[in-house]
Design a protein that fits this description.
Elements (H helix, E strand, L loop, with lengths): L4 E3 L18 E6 L4 H16 L7 E7 L7 H13 L8 H5 L2 E5 L5 H18 L5 E5 L6 H10 L17 E5 L7 H14 L5 E3 L7 H11 L13 E9 L8 H6 L2 H18 L8 H14 L8 E4 L1 E2 L1 E3 L2 E3 L17 E7 L9 E7 L6 E8 L22 E7 L3 E9 L7 E9 H5 L6 H11 L8 H20 L8 E2 L6 H8 L9
Parallel strand pairs: 1-18, 2-3, 2-5, 3-4, 5-6, 6-7, 8-14, 10-19
Antiparallel strand pairs: 8-15, 9-13, 11-12, 13-14, 15-16, 16-17, 17-18
Helix pairs in contact: 1-2, 1-12, 5-6, 6-13, 9-10, 9-13, 10-13
Bound molecules: 6-O-phosphono-beta-D-glucopyranose.
6-O-phosphono-beta-D-glucopyranose binds next to helix 9.
């Protein structure tokens, strides 16, 4: 039976929030700009920000990559803004924005290239009035991060330059894309490299999930409302599930994915961030240091995850949206006997006063039945049922209350509770009270990159990872990765594309007397 729905609407008409602060003029320098991320996400995000009046007039973008793309880079970015950003290609604001984009070809280990870049940036300051402020964005393959950082240091581009009066009124910051390290050791080494050249307050380790409205809303839901926090603990909550399911495969990223896998690609970062937002203690303020400190406390309270509490899977051929799709091992540039996991599930516990004894089940995977990222908080049943007789009379009876937070798509929050079915009997049925972002606010949530680019320009690191946090999450994942590497499994692929993952994942919950919620 479909669960009936009660709609939640906004209490007052929505007034769009006006920007409180505008960033300073600056140049955004994107290393690895010939990659997909720049065209599909970063440039559309910058354009939307500019159109929303959130950027200063004096803004410029420089793409840096190895290939000589001087003639095609800006027009290619225009295509990206039109196709990836849903912008009309006759939009009159488009060409003026494209006019602010330049390109610089260089090898990332070539000193002459950095000297040339430095000159180019001075020229841009003169032409566009960007005042020496620099936002470097490292969007290259991760093996180049350290080289680029060190070279920026060697060329004195890591610190603001002094003006003719010897004063430094400008700033230099760097955003570093994921994956930040490959395991605990490499993450530490990268942190050491980066911290030698940049101060921690210049570094913005990006996880685009934190830019999603629905992810930030977890904190608002918990800490801007008086009624939820009281029940947000081991006394009332039975367990929590976090699902990050994708129906897409690896989209031509074989060489990258072969060295990553689901645990490194999504669980260590996106899913652990979601987990921290759901479980952290109220921070003293919504400021970078306070928020990041609470997150790290949660990750450090997670007990080492036992191999028996982990599941890995890999998709074989199957059907997605009625179309036959290849198995992982048949994808381009994937080893025909690859052991890389395209699905990972974990059971973990957080050993602190709030959460001791509450299991957290998390799963993430590619080529699953549908795209859905959702957090399900399942509450305990009432201690005593006075409606015992209401059960078994055709109604569904008493079920656990659930709060489910839909991160994407169909962003929103649902509360499931029991209601009396109309009629002479005391029969109970679950109903859903639903809040939908799109219905309540009439806007679909922006791509996470907009918010994060803007925050980095404003110097606000609240929604970025800190060194300690990155190392804490790698400390949890690394023993699992090592165990998996030392113990290959024979039955891969173990789920068909278009299903909900390997049967071992269901078995892990069944052993606890539970089931994954049907999404
Ligand atoms: C990226 C991963 O970080 O996140 C991809 O590398 C994944 O493999 C993507 O597809 C998911 O992001 P979103 O915003 O589409 O859920």
């Amino acid at each position: 039976m479909a669960i009936p729905e009660v709609k939640a609407s906004t209490a007052k008409p929505v007034v769009p929030t006006t920007p409180e602060r505008k960033p300073d003029p600056c140049v955004v320098v994107i290393f690895g700009a010939s990659g997909d991320l720049t065209k599909r996400k970063l440039l559309p995000a910058l354009y939307h920000l500019e159109q929303a009046g959130l950027l200063p007039k004096e803004i410029a973008v420089v793409g840096v990559a190895r290939r000589p793309l001087e003639a095609t880079f800006a027009p290619d970015m225009k295509d990206g803004i039109v196709s990836g950003g849903g912008v009309d290609d006759h939009d009159p604001a488009l060409d003026p924005f494209i006019g602010k984009i330049s390109y610089h070809a260089m090898n990332f280990d070539d000193d002459a290239g950095y000297a040339g870049l430095k000159d180019l940036l001075h020229g841009i300051d003169g032409k566009f009035g960007t005042k020496g402020n620099r936002l470097f964005y490292l969007a290259t393959a991760p093996e180049y991060f350290a080289d680029i950082i060190n070279s920026l240091g060697r060329h004195g581009m890591n610190k603001p330059e002094a003006d003719e009066h010897g004063k430094t009124a400008c700033w230099v910051r760097t955003i570093i894309e994921k994956p930040f390290g490959h395991d605990l050791e490499s993450a530490r080494a990268l942190n050491d490299d980066v911290n030698k050249v940049f101060d921690e307050d210049q570094i913005f380790r990006i996880d685009h999930y934190l830019g999603k409205e629905t992810v930030q809303n977890i904190l608002v839901f918990r800490f801007a409302n008086g009624i939820f926090e009281n029940v947000w603990n081991r006394n009332y909550i039975d367990h929590v599930e976090i699902t990050a399911a994708e129906s897409i495969g690896i989209e031509g990223r074989g060489p990258f994915y072969e060295t990553a896998g689901a645990l490194r690609d999504v669980v260590q970062n996106h899913v652990m961030e979601l987990l921290s937002f759901v479980t952290m203690e109220p921070p003293v303020s919504f400021e970078a240091e306070a928020v990041r400190a609470e997150k790290v406390k949660v990750w450090r309270s997670i007990q080492p995850i036992h191999p028996a509490d982990t599941v890995r899977g890999q998709y074989g051929p199957g059907t997605i949206d009625g179309k036959q799709v290849a198995g992982y091992r048949q994808e381009d540039r994937v080893h025909p006997r690859s052991q890389t996991e395209t699905y990972a599930a974990l059971r973990l516990e957080i050993e602190n006063w709030r959460w001791a004894g509450v299991p957290f089940y998390i799963r993430a995977g590619k080529r699953l039945a549908k795209r859905v990222t959702e957090i399900t908080v399942m509450f305990k049943q009432p201690p005593l049922s006075i409606f015992k007789d209401a059960e078994g009379k055709g109604a569904e009876g008493i079920r656990n209350n659930i709060i489910s937070m839909r991160i994407q798509p169909d962003e929103g929050i649902t509360l499931r509770f029991g209601a009396k079915l109309p009629g002479p009997n005391m029969s109970i049925s679950p109903v859903n009270m639903n809040f939908s972002y799109a219905e309540a606010f009439g806007t679909s949530s922006a791509n996470g990159y907009e918010r994060l680019l803007l925050d980095a320009m404003l110097g606000d690191a609240t929604l970025f990872a800190h060194r300690d946090g990155v190392e804490a999450t790698w400390a949890l994942m690394t023993p699992i990765l090592e165990h998996w590497a030392a113990n290959p499994i024979k039955d891969l692929p173990n789920y068909a594309a278009g299903t909900w993952g390997p049967p071992t994942s269901d078995a892990m919950l069944k052993a606890d007397g539970r089931k994954w919620r049907k999404l």
